[in-house]
Each structure stands twice: as structure tokens, then as C-alpha cells.
Amino acid sequence: MSDRLTSLDASFLYLEEGTTAMHVGSVMVFQPPADGFDYDQLVQIIEHRIGAIPRFRQKVRDVPGRIANPVWVDDENFDMSYHVRRTGLPRPGKDRQLQDFVARVQPRKLDRSRPLWEVYLVEGLADGRFALVTKTHHALIDGVHALDIAHVIVDSERGEVGEDDDVERWEARRPPSSVELVTEAVVDAVRRPTQVVDLVRGGMHDAVTVGMRAAESAGSLLSNLVRTAARPAPDSPLNAQIGTARRWVNLATDLQNYRAVRTRLGRGAYAEDVTINDVVLATITGGFRTWLLNRGEAVSSSTVVRAMVPVSIYGDDPSGMYANQVMACVVNLPVGEPGASIRLHQIAFAMRQQMEGGHAVGATSLANLAGFAPPTLHALGARLGSAMSRRIYNVMITNVPGPQSPLYAGDAEMLSTYPVTPLAKGQALSIGITSYNGGVYYGLNADRDAMPDVEVLAQSIVDSLAELASGRDL
């Protein structure tokens, strides 16, 4: 029997549009060893690591007449050189040139006639560095059979993958014929006749649950998914009709600054409830405030930016790649509040209310409703954005805790890692954040026409963190 896509994963093939590519990406910057790092080494690493993960050599095939979900079939003409590509930046190899490259390649949809992933080796960065830019489709990332290709490449131990190392031999299975696909679909329907009814019943229950919790946590929000009449998200330049062109900006900050801000709050009654994630959100809130003022937008004491925030529950020093618990919250960022410390306390209180008061929307319910089972927080964030109406929130912010020790691709040490979260329909900006080895790294993905000043926002975020860290009003 063929390996059939679940309805959850198949939906990401159906939801993909020209302006909303359904893949998640990453940009990892490395320092090569003294003897260098080249394309052949990267191919060797990937061949070695995906040996036990068949999904990376499989493609999607539709069932004739679409009488059932598509299936995964082995790609008989699998071509590693197509998926792993080599390019270089012109001198002087500045970060801005890397940003422009990412903005060009990330919006391009993956070829559905091939396995749904790509990796770019980008050489020529200043100071001898190189970057790996990855793209992985949400339909492939199911958390069981395959993860983001970026997680496959890096390892916690330094070391080359040698030619003598055991690599699982892979031979493509014969693809099923059209007749076999139809026959298997009929057999599945006979064996599980109540599947559709169960899916509909479960989906309706989850829709009601999600709708009720969204309304409670975000102040009677309007969800097109559950048809709940309520107040929509505030008007914002962050919501706009988007095209296919993007701007992408990355910025690096020091995790210690966020910890210092959190420690300085030790005088408050609820200080122990302020998390690093709250400090990150307060930093972004201050950045939004400055950005809006620079745009000449009207900012009053009641002005807010509504954010969809998939939250991982973790401490100050996460040691693993993945979080154990995920919640999706809708929070109003108080950009109208001029005081940095007051903004932080308001955000911490709002987040605590949702997570401890049972008002946060559980990731499982969202997965059942929207068609995704999140393997990583950034995948969750991107999928949430596609599931929820633009009228519910203004911007998506995902914050993923990463390991606080170095990772390697062969002997090359990863210096920094930046997420590239896709834009949902009607969303001009998405923000992904990853903490790694003492740093907090931002990736701002924006529509090229709606956000020509995304670099101003990036600098405003840096300035906002400096304001919080200075403690002038704490």
C-alpha cells in the first residue's frame, strides 16, 4: 500500500497560492575549518543523514480523479545536485547581499514533481564565512517521517562524514500505476468508512473550541473559521494585499541582554512570571512603536498591534532543539504605551493570563482544525498564519528556543541561525526568532511593496532592546 498524505498535510498543497508559498526556511551562517568547506562535503553530509529518512527522496503524486489524498512515491530519478545547489556572493560579501539573495530564492515555490526541499550553499561571505539556505515544504514536515532539512544537516558534534562511513543504500521502489492508486483509494474507503465522518465531527468540535478560546483570549475576536461575530483586529499597515516579491532582513542580538532585563524585574510581585519570551515581545513592541511613528502613523495611548504568538514553554537556558510544550496565544502588543517597562509588564500579564488561565489555543486543536501537525515551532507559526483569518491578528511572531552550545556541519561551526517564516495571505510581515548559543537571532520576512522600510523596523527593534537593557524606566 502507498504512503498516503494525511488530510492535514495534503491541505498545505491545496492552500498554496502564487503569493503564499507553503514552505519554511532557514539561513545558517558558518565559519569553515582551516582546510575549508566545499559543496562535495555538504552533499556527503546530506546523503549520510537522509539515508534513514525516505521522505527526502519521495515526491507527491495525485490519485486520478482526486478521489483520495495524494500519496508519497519514491522519486526514481532523484537528483541530489538539483536539491543541493551552490552559489556565491559578489565581493565584498556583505550581510546585505545575503539578505537580498534570501529574499529572491525563498518566495519561489518548490517543484512538486520532485521531493519538496532545497538547500543552497552560499559562498563568499565576508570574513571567510559561508551560509546554508534551506527550504522545506510543510507537507513534508510531519514530525514523524521527516523534519526540516536544516535540522538534518547540523549536529552537536564536530566531525567530517567520511567516505568509509556506513550510508544506508537506497533503491527506489516501483511507483504505483494509476489503476493501483485508484484501487488502493477504494480499499482505504472500504476499510475506514467512518473516517470522513470522524474528521468532520472532530473538526467541528475543534473549530468551536478554538473559536471560543480565541474570543476569550483576544477580546472577542472575529474568526472566519468559526463564524463568531466579534471585533476584528485593528487596522494596521502590517495587513495588506501582498505580491510575490519579498524583502528579508536578519539581525543578531545577545541573549544576555534579555536575561538582564528579566533579572532587573526582581522587585515586582509577579517578577518570577516574566519570561524571556515576554522580554522578546516587549522588544518587538517598542520596535513597532518607533517604526509606526517614523511612518507618520497615528499612535495614541490605546494603539495596539495584535500578534499571533506560538509559545514554547522553556527556561532561560534551554538545552534541546525542540520545546516540550507549545501554546498559540493572541496578544495585543501595547505600542501606544511610551514606557518600556510598562509595556513589558502589560505583555507579561497578558501572556500569563492566557497560558495559566487556560485561554491559550492548544496547538493540537489548531492542528486538527487547520491541517497541520507541527514538528518545529517555526513550522507551527507559519501554519497558524495560514489557518487563521487576517482579521484575527496583524502579525505572526514565532520564537524558537535553540541549543545553547555550538552546532556543526562537518567541521564547520554554525555561528548564527535565522528563520524565514512565510507570509500568510493578507500579512505584510512575519517575524521568526531563534535563540542559539548565547544569541537571539531575528528573521524579518516582508512583502517587498508593502514593507519598503523593513530595515527601519529592524533597527527599531535593536534600539528597543537597548532601551530595555538600559533600565532607564525600570
UniProtKB/TrEMBL annotation:
A Gene Ontology annotation in the biological process aspect, one of them, is: biological process involved in interaction with host
Q: Say if the entry is tagged with keyword Acyltransferase.
A: yes
Q: What is its EC number?
A: 2.3.1.20
GO MF terms listed in the record are: diacylglycerol O-acyltransferase activity
What does it catalyze? an acyl-CoA + a 1,2-diacyl-sn-glycerol = a triacyl-sn-glycerol + CoA
Q: Which UniProt keywords apply?
A: Acyltransferase, Glycerol metabolism, Lipid biosynthesis, Lipid metabolism, Transferase
The pathway it acts in is: Lipid metabolism; Glycerolipid metabolism; triacylglycerol biosynthesis
Please state every residue range assigned to the domain named O-acyltransferase WSD1-like N-terminal.
Answer: 5-280
Q: Which family does it belong to?
A: Belongs to the long-chain O-acyltransferase family.
Its name, as the record gives it, is Diacylglycerol O-acyltransferase
